[in-house]
Specification:
This protein is α/β, with parallel strands linked by helices and 259 residues long. The chain is built from nine helices and eight strands. It has one domain: Metal-dependent hydrolases (TIM Barrel, Alpha-Beta Barrel). It has an eight-stranded parallel sheet. It is globular, with a radius of gyration of 17 Å. The relative contact order is 0.15.
């Protein structure tokens, strides 16, 4: 299993990273992707990659999460310039970027940041990791108007079959996480069942740890080791064995991030 999206640099994960990685490995995790969210996080992720990858391989992405755009010490243009300078061969993707319709950061600034990330990913030949919340229509419009011709992942996907297929038509993968462990998330569960049946080559596993706790684990921080809950939920939604789902999503991850 591979966790395609978790935030090792956020508490409580960052309080004991060796333990977090060791317990994840014991639960069958083989590697994970940690996206950057602020300029300050990028050097931290490099340190984690250099220090802890002997426990569990760590891939990194760098980007500016829309949620933190107003909290950066630098201006947006300065942060974007620094982002471009920070890319090297250890960076597997650009992100986490995207659009969030539920926060106070103005959409104009979010779109400016997103398009800059897409342009940079196009120039560098890297995939992108995209965040969405109440913004599918805006995100699809941005992708349509962008010069970006590459691939990426719609992280923590939730939504309809139609929306999922529109992202797939644009060459994207869909990150499947803890949302599907909740029976009340019927629309997303139905979509994921459809994806497993018809688009299994476009799905990835993720936890988004420490966020999006799994069903039955509410009130506690999510952890990479709980990715088995996602596999269990996917198995219940399909007629595919867990081992096959693991093989499929691992192959997809390696293809997308050029492992």
């Amino acid at each position: 299993m591979i966790d395609s999206h978790c935030h090792l640099n956020l508490p409580p994960l960052c309080d004991d990273i060796p333990h977090v990685l060791a317990t994840a490995k014991q639960n069958g995790l083989k590697r994970l992707m940690v996206p950057g969210i602020t300029p300050e996080s990028w050097s931290t992720l490099r340190y984690y990659q250099n220090t802890y990858s002997d426990i569990l391989p760590i891939d990194i992405a760098i980007g500016l999460h829309p949620y933190f755009l107003l909290q950066n010490e630098q201006s947006l243009s300065e942060s974007l310039a620094l982002l471009e300078k920070t890319i090297d061969s250890n960076v597997r993707a650009i992100g986490e970027t995207g659009l969030d319709g539920h926060i106070s950061v103005c959409m104009k600034m979010q779109k400016q940041s997103l398009h800059a990330h897409l342009n940079l990913a196009e120039a560098q030949g890297l995939p992108v990791i995209l965040h969405h919340r109440k913004s599918h229509h805006l995100l699809l419009e941005a992708l349509k108007s962008s010069v970006f011709s590459g691939s990426g992942v719609i992280h923590a996907f939730s939504g309809s079959i139609d929306v999922a297929e529109r992202y797939i038509d644009k060459g994207f993968y869909l990150g499947i996480g803890g949302t599907i462990t909740y029976e009340r998330a019927k629309k997303t569960r139905d979509t994921v069942a459809h994806l497993i049946r018809y688009y299994s080559d476009r799905i990835l596993l993720e936890t988004d740890a420490p966020d999006i706790p799994m069903s039955g684990r509410q009130g506690k921080a999510n952890m990479p080791r709980f990715i088995t809950d996602v596999i269990d939920a996917m198995t219940a939604l399909s007629d595919i064995e867990p081992s096959e789902l693991i093989n499929i999503t691992t192959t997809n991850y390696n293809r997308l991030f050029n492992i």
